[in-house]
Amino acid sequence: MTYCVAMRLDTGLLFASDSRTNAGVDHIATFRKMHVFEQPGKRLIVLLSAGNLATTQSVVSLLRQRLDDDAVNLYNVATLYDAAALVGNTVKEVVARYASEGTLGQGVDFGANFIVGGQIRGETTRLFQVYPQGNFIETCEDTPYFQIGESKYGKPIIDRVVRSDTSLPEAAKCTLISFDSTIRSNLSVGLPIDMLLYGADTFAPAAPHRIDGDDPYFNKLRRGWGEGLRRVFAKLPDADWFE
Amino acid sequence: MTYCVAMRLDTGLLFASDSRTNAGVDHIATFRKMHVFEQPGKRLIVLLSAGNLATTQSVVSLLRQRLDDDAVNLYNVATLYDAAALVGNTVKEVVARYASEGTLGQGVDFGANFIVGGQIRGETTRLFQVYPQGNFIETCEDTPYFQIGESKYGKPIIDRVVRSDTSLPEAAKCTLISFDSTIRSNLSVGLPIDMLLYGADTFAPAAPHRIDGDDPYFNKLRRGWGEGLRRVFAKLPDADWFE
């Protein structure tokens, strides 16, 4: 499985992805699920992927090898909306190819989910979630984040903390706690985590940060969060209706 | 959907269930998912149910109307193991009846999950999870709890807090926090919560406690937990690798 989160905040965008893939429990590997398309000063488009690895890799490879084409590609689409549509169409193209080759069925789910976000000069930052069917939705002020993959374990802390006006460093902190909860409860999500923070309107070179098991900040956070939770828990009263 | 939790601790058993059922989002109702079979002084058997409501209700009705039969029933099985097997066989019986009547298929999942726990005089407390196929597993010291239904949102807090030697009141506190996280993030789980705490070897009459939206303890807990989390979160440092 996979766990990816992206947030569109007033001051910028956050992207985070784990890097564990598995085909069954005995075939586990590490693959990057964050894919950056950037032209510093002009545009940044970040893709996060979940689902069938052959499908997501095909989609990203096709998107990348077409960057020099004259046809529509991620470096010449006019808006992030068009970028999301292009990703959706490429997902459909790959799955249609499987269908025509007789690859579909066989009890395998060939579907893929993507999060597509970034900023193209002339637009504000935007963030989309692309479904396996190729259609997509965009964040709004009430719901400024998307998750794909194993989203449930880490959702409560995001629901409690993140609003549109949350700062990027706070959002990063919340996201790492969300990953910690997920990794503790689900074997199919694993380190390292890739995290990219983008300040709105900066068009600066995007530098994903890789967080591994020996990352001092992540370890301080996990320890502090775990101890803090237990402290809060211990201070809360027991029910008076029991004995 | 549904959310049920049960724990087998050194000092006793905990059972908790929400009470929301839905067939689509526009047909929501409240049904008790905790079913108590007891002979004070002799035996206590508690069932928690998740899945297709017609199936779970049929299973519980059949188990109850057979209590006076001479055949095997929940009041005459010799062990909790036999009780779990009886529940599993009754699930299979109901689903087999659907199959013979041509009810199966039609895009509906007729499956049901049960948690079966309690104590029969002569045995220690025991706790089982029964799958839709009728087979079942029992807790052990390393994994003293089972969840059925929407289990993921509320799993991290249980994984952090509950061990076999956790006290019943602490386990109750943790379980209610787990329900709070689930209810906040998932519409298909809702109040009231039924909770039953049983002290090992007491064979006392079982008194489920019903927790509704105006329960003072539950509200104090949700408020204290939410505020405590935000306090711990605010005190944790921001990443030094961001600006």
From TrEMBL, chains A, B:
Query: Pfam families, from UniProt?
Result: Proteasome (PF00227)
SUPFAM superfamilies named in the record? N-terminal nucleophile aminohydrolases (Ntn hydrolases)
Instruction: Report the InterPro entries cross-referenced here.
Output: Ntn_hydrolases_N, Proteasome_sua/b, UCP009120_prtse
Q: Give the matching CDD domains.
A: proteasome_beta_bacterial (cd03765)
Source domain of life: Bacteria
- Coiled coil spans: none
Give the protein's recorded name: Peptidase
According to its UniProt entry, this protein's organism is Chitinimonas prasina
